[in-house]
Amino acid sequence: MIWKLAETGMNVARLNMSHGDHASHQKTIDLVNEYNAQFEEKVVAIMLDTKGPEVRSGDVSQPILLKEGQEFNFTIRRGINTEDTVSVNYDDFINDVEVGDILLVDGGMMSLAVKSKTHDLVKCKVIDGGELKSRRHLNVRGKSATLPSITEKDWEDIKFGVDNQVDFYAVSFVKDAKVVHELKDYLKGCSADIHVIVKIESADSIQNLHSIISASDGAMVARGDLGAELPIEEVPLLQTDIIRRCRSMQKPVIVATNMLESMIDHPTPTRAEVSDIAIAVREGADAVMLSGETAHGKFPLKAVKVMHTVALRTESSLPISISPPGQFSAYKSHMGDMFAFHATTMANTLATPIIVFTRTGSMAVTLSHYRPSSTIFAFTNVGRVKQRLILYHGVTPIYMKFTDDVEETFSQALKLLLTKGLVIEGQYVTLVQSGAQPIWRRESTHHIQVRKVLAD
To answer: Which of 285, 296, 331, 366 is 20 to 30 A off residue 93, Cα-Cα?
Structure first.
């Protein structure tokens, strides 16, 4: 199934550490690695999503039906599972919750008003009912839990990620940049080349958005908890703002949660869900994410296909720009940015794909920032760079060993693209060189070429 998901359009496999154990996640990692070993021009990156300081209800033997108006309790005593009382996994829950607060269960699928509390019990009245299942996420509207962003369990999972050389960490409930620096220092000490994606999902993170995103390698708009902790009408505006901030900093941004929620149980999406995907694409997101739809939904392949085809169709309708984005003036003094802009302009004018050779991925990232209308084929001789580039908009990373002869390397790249059907004979391509070129030597040269693809 994982291989089928990849063939249908999945670029990144997310390991949700809120569920499963290391043994089960290891099986997924092994299957993804097997897939990646088969192809030069295809890749699925691995993102480890930390559980974070989640407040969850305890296990229940069977779903508890909550009805509007009934009384229901949450207790910090472990192992409680009755018709009217269930445990929570967080001892300070009593202190964080005040009378009058609104508790949201499962991102707002159910809600309860806090009526009173004792030293170990929070007594509530059900406002919106539903089925309470095991380990459901609890939020207090307008508040964040006082737990640390990286818990002891998270550190164990992070080490598991280092041992398995995952490509990204998605760090849950990031409240400030200090958390990101702490994790990056740890990774540096481990000599681990793993990028940090911050999940923007707590009320506390909004006031620190700029510093959090600046410290990170990218961001995820985690709309579920964001809409639970903040007024729901603020979520679309925050999504737009976070995407804009990431674009201005040349960092990838992921839009996540509830994108095709109805496809957990149904084979076709709602029209509103289709529009939601299209809006994220038009706003400039690098990636859109599925969670429950593929984790436990009935139609995982159909969900990926819908997301893939809607994203492609929306991209094909976007206007082709030949003028620099608003922030271009801030970057024009940098040679790489100048070349990326002009390469994009040339590729858009001639309707050609772009070919770039890179060891670090930086030029491919910069080109992605300018959103050329055609594919960016990023050739690299570094496996980790190939894995990471798959997250960036419009980039198709390809692993290839570079030779000492520049023309031979260019020729090999064009031949590979031709063989795989990624370009056709007679087609023109825009080839970008910027920085230390030829790539495997120390000479420095900067130029853009347009070449015609010819078969041997």
So the answer is: 296
